[in-house]
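Illustration: BED-type domain-containing protein.
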Amino acid sequence: MAEVTEMETTPVENNNELALVTSEAQPEALPEMQPEALPETQPKRRKKKSMVWEYFTIENVSPGCRRACCKRCKQSFAYSTGSKVAGTSHLKRHIAKGTCPAILREQDNNHSSPYTPRVGGSEPRKRRYRSPSSPFIPFDQDRCRHEIARMIIMHEYPLHMVEHPGFIAFVQNLQPRFDKVSFNTVQGDCVATYLREKQSVMKFIEGIPGRVCLTLDMWNSKQTLGYVFITGHFIDFEWKLQRRVLNVIMEPYPDSDSALSHAVAACLSDWSLEGKLFSLTFNHPTSEAGLENLRPLLCTKNPLILNGQLLLGNCIARTLSSMAKDVLGAGQEIIKKIRDSVKYMKTSESHDEKFVQVKNQLQVPSEKSLILDDQTQWNTTYQMLAASTELKEVFNCLDTSDPDYKLAPSMEDWKLAETVCTFLKPLFDAASILTTPNNPTAITFFHEAWKIHADLGRSITNEDPFISSLAKSMQEQIDKYWRDCSLILAIAVVMDPRFKMKLVEFSFTKIYGEDAPSYIKVVDDGIHELFLEYVALPLPLTPTYADEGNAGNGKADESHQGNLLSDQGLSDFDVYIMETSGQQMKSELDQYLEESLLPRVQEFDVLGWWKLNKMKYPTLSKMARDILSIPVSAAAPDSVFDNTIKQLDEYRSSLRPETVEALICAKDWLHYGSEVSSNALVKMEF
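Result:
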């Protein structure tokens, strides 16, 4: 009777892919037989499911005799003679019991075994085969390296983790075919990922219709090196506010007058932003000499938008933190007393239970819970004080149930703590807006800044010397911010159809009193001057119709567009229209300002409104796009309440500056994923 053939699965390596190919064992030569002598039915062919076949192949030694050959050490073992099959137990012992010399050498190198036999009554591991329900996924070394680089970037893992024994053992058990990678290899992979993502972001930014605003956030390190984080802010074709970290530039002398100007020049050159920069906001104390170095650099490489008055702006987060620091310094003695009392409660479970028990007995209505502050984050100190002052009755009565508690502040102390909270609350409320994910605009902070300014003006006249002195110190700082940024904030408010010039007039009257008209005129003149500059800009920079049409319709008919919109054909006509229209009708800006205010609704999308009205106000909408992209803060949301300058950790400080930039920027870009391709004018290839 003919020997039954079996289906065998043998792993074959081809171009770094592991594929399961099916081969049929060659049968022995059979004597000629008549067709009727063959059996009527063929037995089912079965696949070999044992794990040992990952390590053995079957070879035909002689007719009727086959042996199993170890792929690692090339030793052969009995498998079948005639119709008798030897089984696989002796093959398992060879690879699992340490008798294969090749596997022993691998264990010495990797401290792991590629095969673990089944123990006890556990279920045997079954090999997965290709089927519609479980598709076969080939192994790809390059793809694995790419994913490791992405993992390290996204989760800020140290690059050296790929050389850690634990990681190597884990990967070898997960996929023995994966080749170990070194620190230098994964560093190169991370930089390659950064460069690929940078090309996509660069195409995205090249296609935006408006200008770009930059924020500068200076970090330091234990080596006294500075790292300037430069982030770009802009509005895309869909009128969505976007932000991207563009550069992280190491400055060896961060306190020098040229540190920021050098970083900005490098960024403008790297991203080809000369002529597209609209404003600059920084989160680092800058000397007058530093500003003098920065302003000429910007003005020589950019159109003189409003004589450069919009190019420099202070970070509101730094101003609020500086004011909060003054408040905490003035109340440091009472703050320490309250902190010690809170610490007494929170570091002992029994003390905390007694505190809650007394609170329930007194039926104190406060829903707040005690927290111990983090002294590097001023918001936590405010929250500790706010909760403690609401629970002061509990502290005052706690000694009746806990005789060991002798830290209760006096009534004068509680009064002082409440005063400190009164000063901190508006700062906390304003700074909290910066932590929201919806990118607060300058419109919001015009309202917040003038409220704080007006409140401090009233507090200065208070009869309490503590209150008046503290208010005077705080007002000096908000005055400086207001002088530097009020024009930017006011122009942004005018671009909101709910407020326009009316809110500026109302607010300035509250702040400046009888002198308000002169300050209001500065804003009115400024916004008209800015509008005229946009009207006079050359068509290639701010095309009125072409960019909007291309954005909505994709590819335009170039020949048709050239006949209608080319500069050579109609540029003189555009000038004629502007000259004659100015004499016969009101400008877009005046028409906009004279229209009625929109009703104030809580969830109003000002960018969405300009998107809907861009055809009605083609030039003014371009100006609004740039103005509403101005960031008021250079601090990241998790750094808004910092009391100290951010510091780069010791590990990253040890890396090359280029690697640090690649890791930080790529993490930011990977966060946005494929969003960059949805808004760009050009088609992106990934």
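Reading the tokens back as a structure: Residues 102 and 192 are 36 Å apart (CA to CA).
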